[in-house]
Structure formats: C-alpha cells, structure tokens
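user: can you give me the structure for this one chain? tokens are fine.
assistant: on it. calling the predictor now.
[tool input]
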Amino acid sequence: MFAHLTLRVMGAGGFGVLGWRLGGIVSKMSSDEERFLPWGLALTLAGVPVGAFLAPYLTIKPWRKSTDYINSIPAPTLAAGTLGLLVGLIIASLISIPLFTLDGWLGWAVPVIVSLSMGIAGLWVGAHRARDLQAIFPALQSNSEVPRTSRNGNILVDTSAIIDGRIADLSITGFLEGSFVVPRFILDELRHIADSNDPLRRARGRRGLEVLGRLRKDDTVSMEVLDVGVPEGEEVDSRLVSLARSMKSPILTTDYNLNRVAELQGVQVLNVNELANALKSIVLPGEEIRVNIVQEGKEAGQGVAYLDDGTMVVVEGGRRYLNTFHDVVVTRVLQTAAGRIIFAQPKAG
C-alpha cells in the first residue's frame, strides 16, 4: 500500500512538472512568449491526476509481468541465455573496435547496431543450447533438471491436494522427496475459497490454510511460495500446467480433470487418490477375511463392510449379520474409477 501511494505521488509530481514544461512550450508557440498562464496551469493540473493514475501501470504492472516471466524460465535456460548474451557482447566489442573510426554518425550507429545484433544472437543461441551447456558446465544444472526422485526436486502443489489434507501426513513419512512449491495464485485461490459465502467451501478453504500452516511449521518438510500470478484471462489450472512444463516439475493434485489435462501436455502428475488406491490391501478370490458388517447393501440381502484402508466389501447374504463381525470368503475384486470394491460371501459353518 505504501509503495503504491509513493508511486502515485511521484507520478503526480512528475506529470505535473511535465505538464508545466509542455504548457510553456505551447504558450511560446502560440504567442512567442513563454508564460505559465493559461497553458502551464491547465496542463499542470491535468498532469497531476493523470500521473497519479498511470504511475502503477507504468511501473508495478510491467515489473510483475517481467518477474512472472523470468520466474517461469527454467534456471538452466536463464543461465545459458545470460552466458550467450555476454559472449555475444564480447564478440561485438571486438568487431566494433575498427568501426569507431568511421566518419560522422556511422562511428557510433554501426557499433550500436552490431552490439544489439550480436547480443540478441548470443542470447538466442545460449537459450536454445542450454542442454549442451549443462553437459559442459554442470553448475548450470538446476533443481528442476534433477530426477524427480531427488531430494532437490520441486513439486508444484495444486489447491485440491492442499484442501485434501493428506499431503501433510504423506510428507512427514518421507515417501515424497523434494520441495513443495506453492505458486502465489494457488494461495490466492485458497484464500478466495476460505472467504466464500458457502459454508462448505469456506470450511474447505480454511482446512487448506491449516494444512499449509502445518507444513510450514514442520522442519522436516521443505516448502516455498513462488511469487507467480495468473495472467488476465488465463485459468488457474492452465497456468499451473504451463508453469510445471517450464519448471519441468510434477504436479501434486487430487483433481481428476487437471490430472488428464496435465498428462496430455506431458507433465508428470502425482495423484494422491491414485497413490491411496495403490496402497490399499490386496486380496484375491478365495481368501478369507474378517469384517464388521455395518450397513445394508443396495441389493436385497446384501451387507456392507469396510476394511481399515476404506475399501468397500459387499457381502452377499450378509444382511443377517448386520452390526457383527463375521468371516467372509472373497469371490471377486472389482477395480473402478472410484476405487476397489470387494465382493464376498459369508463363510459356511
């Protein structure tokens, strides 16, 4: 807020002075005499509000867009491009030495053109040959280029995974190696959900903020906030996928649609739901298990039980054993998009 106010005051003063100087030029052109009234006063008064209004758009907005763009560039590409720019400028300075002897404006214009051309060419070549430079200079290797199983890797976290809450327990176990990266636009979306008028959405948003608080306080979990916003007109999911592609980092999510979109664009997805399904107990037809039948099934006579990992067990003819523990025999296992369902029958005898 203070920075905005300071910029507006400076913009108002700068445009006011500009209006005053412009008023003097206009008055001199119209009457061959430089006077403050009326043109100087009018343009000064007009310049003050215009400067106060335009100052943030001429400074903060371009700065944020430039910062977001630079943050989206992988570190090896940025380093390689900078190195290419320096090499191009060095070559341009060597070429320009004899060109300074040219007569007139050519003595400064030609060296400037050569420097611009060689600098841009070096920047382009360096950015496009980043992988070759990494092989020559290992120091250019960034965290985003490290294999995703490395502890130095980055994992972009989606809003759905934060609200889900299981990442806090999962990260503590040590199975997920790497640093959690939460873009600023994900935090903004989470705050928007927490401020929703819908009680359910508000509760989900506040739970997400509590999960982030737990991760921030845990010394065993590495988490950072990336100051990247969403360009106007672009969706949050699209921005997250494009950021993951540029950073070469996987996305941690529970959103099915985001999962599919990211995979189509070649981005690795770490889906918490798929991990939970993969870790569920494996049972085979013919195995005996003991379950607590807690409710009736959809079909007549069925009973429903749940394993410790939440897997549903449908017991044919189990209704008569409702609210009791009973041994059952697995008949078949059905894998669905929602998870695994086990069908069983009560054990005879």
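assistant: here you go. Residues 142-152 have pLDDT under 50 and may be disordered. Residues 2-31 form the longest helix (30 residues).
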